[in-house]
């Protein structure tokens, strides 16, 4: 069995990837800022990162944050992986990073390019947004008396567990470069998804579609973050809500 390092291994996706790999009998090292014995801030690099990567055949890079620092983290990880002779670097990205002019998307695209130019064997998978992210967004917006969503924007959320399964398959295979996108099974307007969340959580709020402005909003309205031809996910947003909240009682 191979030794695999999962960065961001305590996060929504990384935890699921780690669980699946360990269930298959692989030795998995979890790298995050606070988890011993590989508590490493990727943005800082250093001896701790070299120790985490030593003897590893494959790295699954799930660590990411919209708060900044992803490019620096990727550079440090790639440099350490080169020094350790890592054979395969697997990176998770987002559908539309090359079309939506949003700061975080631009950063993800920049990291994709660093991975491609790393000199390592590499695989990059882009997916649509996770159901979990949409639930978090709705919960944040739902604190107000009115739940406002961007007008004319749809989403195609995918189950994180299905993404994890795909990442594990890719990590255990040979480097494949940029692989086909993975998207959720259904495309729905954000207003429809917000109403589904309200029903599932037993909340009552008017849902209001608010027109926004700017290039990123136009790209989202145009569906640049969607992949209807890659709707391979099986779990719908309604399925996810039912599993998470039951059938609509107060929470």
TrEMBL record:
Pfam families cross-referenced by the UniProt entry: NAD_binding_10
Record domain NAD(P)-binding: where: 8-132
Name used for this protein in its record: Uncharacterized protein YbjT (DUF2867 family)
Superkingdom in the source lineage: Bacteria
Lineage of the organism: Bacteria, Bacillati, Actinomycetota, Actinomycetes, Kitasatosporales
């Amino acid at each position: 069995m191979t030794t695999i390092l999962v960065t961001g291994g305590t996060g929504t996706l990384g935890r699921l990837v780690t669980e699946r790999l360990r269930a298959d009998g692989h030795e998995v090292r979890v790298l995050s800022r606070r988890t011993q014995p590989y508590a490493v801030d990727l943005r800082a690099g250093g001896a701790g990162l070299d120790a985490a990567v030593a003897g590893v055949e494959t790295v699954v890079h799930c660590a990411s944050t919209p708060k900044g620092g992803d490019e620096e983290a990727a550079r440090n990880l790639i440099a350490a992986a080169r020094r350790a002779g890592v054979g395969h670097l697997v990176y998770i990205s987002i559908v539309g990073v090359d079309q939506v002019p949003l700061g975080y998307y631009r950063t993800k695209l920049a990291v994709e390019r660093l991975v491609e130019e790393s000199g390592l064997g590499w695989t990059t998978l882009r997916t649509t947004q996770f159901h979990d992210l949409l639930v978090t967004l709705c919960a944040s917006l739902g604190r107000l008396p009115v739940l406002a969503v961007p007008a004319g924007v749809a989403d195609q959320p995918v189950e994180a567990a299905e993404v994890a399964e795909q990442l594990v398959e890719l990590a255990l295979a040979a480097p494949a470069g940029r692989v086909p996108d993975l998207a959720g099974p259904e495309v729905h307007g954000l207003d429809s998804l917000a109403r589904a969340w309200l029903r599932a959580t037993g909340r009552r709020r008017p849902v209001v579609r608010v027109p926004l402005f700017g290039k990123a909003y136009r790209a989202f309205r145009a569906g640049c973050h969607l992949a209807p031809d890659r709707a391979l996910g099986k779990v719908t947003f309604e399925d996810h809500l039912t599993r998470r909240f039951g059938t609509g009682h107060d929470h």
